[in-house]
Amino acid sequence: MIALAGQRALVTGGASGIGEATARLLAELGAQVVLADRNAPALPAAQDRTGALAVTAGDVASEADAERMAAEAAAALGGLDILMNAAGIGDDLAPLHAQPVERWQHVLDVNLRGTYLMCRAAGRPMLAARRGAIVNVSSIVGLGAFPGRSAYGAAKAAVNHLTRTLGCEWGPLGVRVNAVAPAYTLTPMVRDLLDRAVFDPAQIACRTPLGRMAEPAEVARAAAFLLSDWASYVTGAVLPVDGGWSAYGAAGDVARFPGPGA
Ligand SMILES: NC(=O)c1ccc[n+]([C@@H]2O[C@H](COP(=O)([O-])OP(=O)(O)OC[C@H]3O[C@@H](n4cnc5c(N)ncnc54)[C@H](O)[C@@H]3O)[C@@H](O)[C@H]2O)c1
User: Fold this and answer.
1) Which domain covers residue 219, as residue numbers?
2) pLDDT at residue 256 above 70?
3) From the alpha carbon of 111, which atom of ligand 1 is closest?
4) Among 52, 195, 201, 253, who pairs with 33 as Cys (CB 3.0-4.6 Å)?
5) What is the domain count for the chain?
6) Is 184 one of the catalytic residues?
7) Ligand 1 surroundings by CB, under 6 angstroms
């Protein structure tokens, strides 16, 4: 069994989706968890659902908020061993030439700058203790090109590189840094896009070798592995949690080969 008893964890984006599912699993595995999220009104209910010890509200893209949230979590827990960086936003699926620079920058700020700021702030007590584990949440959109998603893709590709760099930089100092790169996961973010018919679930299923979208708990399990001592020799890795999406190279309409009944 993966055991996290006594581990002190901060989970950003903990009020919803992948962050919430990871917070709940970390708590089930014995960790003491603090949720951080900019959606302050959603935090008390998320605390109830996850069994988190405490919550802190703020914007990960703000340096002052990131520093404060990490400090509050470390104070509440008496230190930090784990950071799960799940706070993030999607983009508007607009062609690059039609995208306002302010929107492009905002997507970069939350997904990349926010990840950097939280790694820096939460990493400090880990480096001081010469012990810690961080998981950043990337995406398949950071592994290959998705037209219309230039800002989100650039941010997630940069998160992958930041993860590799920090894995190498902080490895000798006792802190492991990895990332998960999920495909379409049934969180509020994606359910909203499905409801608005921005994504076609049948096409996604067809393009995905495992034939379906992910549940948040499936991404949480991969993250919990990377955050635990079971991954004690893993750092600087970007783990696709994507039902085979990134391994698959053929066109979507032949994804069912060899087909039913074969
Ligand atoms: N759902 C998917 O299909 C999918 C796939 C690949 C990657 N991801 C990534 O997973 C992460 C979580 O996404 P999700 O699908 O669970 O979304 P979600 O919208 O359900 O949850 C995201 C949470 O992050 C919080 N948040 C957003 N911006 C913030 C900010 N600036 N400061 C603090 N908190 C902030 C939101 O309030 C929300 O509670 C994101 O980084 C997303 O890019 C999601």
Assistant:
1) 8-184+215-244
2) no
3) 41
4) 52
5) 1
6) no
7) 12-13, 15-19, 37-39, 59-61, 86-89, 110, 114, 137, 139, 182, 184-185, 187-190
Contacts 24+ apart (CB under 8 A), 115-118: 115/60, 115/85, 115/159, 115/162, 116/162, 117/60, 117/61, 117/62, 117/63, 117/66, 117/67, 118/10, 118/12, 118/36, 118/60, 118/66, 118/69, 118/70, 118/83, 118/85, 118/87
For the whole model, what pTM was predicted? 0.97
For residue 138, the ligand 1 atom closest to its alpha carbon is: 7
pLDDT digits (tens, 9 = 90+) for 76-89: 999 999 999 999 99
- The β-bridge partners of 133 are 82, 176
pLDDT band at 116 (very low <50, low <70, confident <90, very high): very high
Distance CA 136, CA 124 (A): 16
pLDDT in tens, 34-61: 999 999 999 999 999 999 999 999 999 9
Decide if 204 is inside a domain.
no
For residue 18, give the ligand 1 atom closest to its CA.
Answer: 16
In a domain, 256, yes or no: no
Q: Which of 116, 152, 184, 248 is catalytic?
A: 152
For residue 191, tell me if it sits in a domain: no
For position 82, which CATH number holds?
Answer: 3.40.50.720
